[in-house]
User: What shape does this take?
Amino acid sequence: MVTNTLYHGVYFSELLYHVARMTEDKGRQLILADGKHSAQEEREAIQYLLDLRCDAIIIYPRFLTVDEMDEIVENHSQPIMVLNRRLRRHASHCVWSDQKPRRCG
Assistant: This one.
């Protein structure tokens, strides 16, 4: 899993808890790589996990664009899931929520 500086608070700790539990249930290990403070550092963290030949990669990006994320999915054979971004070309590789307020009625 590639993370960023957004991992403060309840949401991220809950997310990590459940991902870790699910990977353990499957006999796997969760490996974290921190994307730190820039798109380049996120790319380096993703490449680190790709170089480890991880079975799958979950990316929670802060700096990489949607187009860059789509390109990463296209260019690698490992399953990649992107959290909190709506990918244009790979909708089945992302989980996101529209958090814009809507008016009722």
Remarks:
- The mean pLDDT is 85.
- The helical segments are 10-25, 39-51, 66-75.
